[in-house]
Specification:
The protein contains 16 helices and 13 strands. By secondary structure, it is of the alpha/beta class. The protein has two domains: about 5-270, Metallo-beta-lactamase domain (Metallo-beta-lactamase, Chain A), CATH 3.60.15; about 340-425, Alpha Horseshoe (Serine Threonine Protein Phosphatase 5, Tetratricopeptide repeat). A hairpin with a 5-residue loop joins strand 2 and strand 3. Helix 14 packs antiparallel against helix 15 (about 390-405).
Length: about 450
């Protein structure tokens, strides 16, 4: 018999060890309690049954929306009365076109769509930066270079056509009743500035969205806009003030039991709080960003917990994001206030080294010795100073693929693989597309 999701999460948390993936993309439905169901996808959909129809939290991504509905309809055929967006990331709202299409086919009204007031502003920003968002997601999720965004997939808008817009906004909190069930919506900053977590008293349940993701908090993404670690921690402490018994995130496993839930939230909140405190204290003492990245660490034992492993984001990226939040974009190094261009600096260093090939060979030696940080600086200087060299790009591709294998977080792996693929393309090699970045599917 398949282990129930709540039993699986309890075993992972109580043992302190995950012997399987906590973030699963099965598109299978699990009933968490009478009237509450979860469909596990790249981003989950949580559904609550009411007398007026279903209330759904998120719609998953554009490639999952239809499959989520198929699983949901085997459990319940009531119309979706209300769709609550936990935030505006495409893997949470992009499947809503499937919800809309189902309503049209059945002659039903579209659901009311609820979200924080900042969510429509996010959609406006996504549309204004359509190309950029496709580029950064190609790197992050597929390791694909910019030149891979060609053809039909590359022409699709980042915000999928048919995505349902919010038609009921709120600012700080909102109480909503649907079919005799009460929902208390709370705004929180964290991974985004438009996040909603919801307390459902009838079930002593919290729909947490991405404020808990069974990974180190996604609070430092190097390609995305500002994140808010201290506000993130505060929202977790607000959740802890409830008498919650069922905690359902949008990524990873649901968690049951008041004490178990509070224990997890306490660890994540305190980890973020300590990280902010350590970075800001160092800033107040006059440290540069380089000093802080070299000295501030998270307890390695914390990073081994099954819900805090740095498999997506990682502490170093969060440290850099804290600096950006409190200190701006300049890192404190005078030469980097108004730096030379990468190419100009690379040519001088290559000349001093006796040519770009010498830089590339030294980079390979350093990579072989495990010093990937310096190796990547040198190989990029080599390729910047002689961008058409086949020898240099062969070395560059090998170094970045080796570094990818040495990293734990998906973000680092994706960016380093993208660099390797850039060189592979310049060598004339065919790049096999990996995971679809445009649909945000795994």
């Amino acid at each position: 018999m398949t282990e129930h999701v709540l039993d699986l999460s309890a075993r992972f948390i109580d043992s302190g060890r995950a012997d399987g993936p906590p973030n699963r993309v099965s598109h299978e439905l699990s009933e968490l309690t009478d009237g509450v169901a979860l469909v596990e996808a790249f981003s989950h959909v949580v559904t609550v049954r009411t007398d007026d129809g279903l209330v759904a939290f998120d719609s998953s991504g554009p490639g999952s929306g239809s499959r989520v509905l198929e699983s949901l309809r085997r459990w319940n055929t009531d119309p979706i009365h209300t769709l609550i967006y936990t935030h505006g990331h495409i893997d949470h709202v992009g499947g809503s076109s499937a919800v809309a299409e189902e309503a049209r086919q059945k002659g039903r009204p579209l659901p009311q769509v609820v979200g924080h007031a900042n969510l429509p502003l996010r959609m406006d920003r996504y549309r204004a930066t359509n190309g950029y968002n496709k580029v950064i997601n190609a790197r992050q999720f597929g390791g694909l270079p910019v030149s891979s965004l060609k053809g039909k997939a590359g022409n699709r808008p980042f915000v999928p056509d048919g995505t349902l817009d919010v038609n009921m906004e709120y600012e700080q909190t909102m109480s909503l009743e649907v079919g005799g069930v009460g929902f208390e919506l709370h705004h929180a900053k964290g991974e985004t500035d438009d996040h909603t977590w919801t307390w459902i008293p009838r079930y002593k349940m919290i729909s947490a969205g991405d404020q808990f993701i069974w990974n180190f908090p996604n609070c430092g993404n190097p390609q995305k806009v500002q994140r808010y670690p201290l506000e993130w921690a505060r929202s977790l402490r607000e959740m802890m003030s409830t008498d919650v018994e069922l905690f359902v995130p949008a990524h990873g496993l649901p968690i049951s039991g008041h004490a178990r839930i509070l224990s997890c939230l306490e660890v994540v909140a305190s980890t973020l709080e300590r990280l902010v405190e350590d970075v800001v204290s160092a800033m107040n003492a006059g440290a540069t960003l380089d000093d802080i990245v070299s000295s501030v660490v998270v307890d390695p034992a914390v990073l081994e917990l099954p819900y805090l492993r740095p498999m997506y984001d990682e502490p170093e990226f969060v440290i850099r994001n804290i600096w950006r939040l409190y200190g701006g974009w300049w890192d404190g190094k005078p030469s980097r206030l108004k730096p030379a261009s990468d190419v100009a600096l690379a040519k001088v260093v290559a000349e001093m080294a006796g040519g770009p090939s010498n830089l590339a060979r030294r980079a390979r030696q350093l990579a072989d010795a495990g010093d990937f940080r310096v190796a990547c600086h040198l190989i990029d200087m080599a390729s910047d100073s002689e961008p058409a060299s086949q020898e240099i790009h062969e070395i560059r591709a090998s170094i970045y693929m080796d570094r990818r294998a040495d990293e734990s977080s998906l973000m680092a792996k994706g960016i380093f693989e993208s660099a390797a693929n850039e060189s592979q393309q310049l060598l004339g090699h065919e790049i096999e597309p990996g995971r679809s970045a445009l649909s945000l599917e795994p």
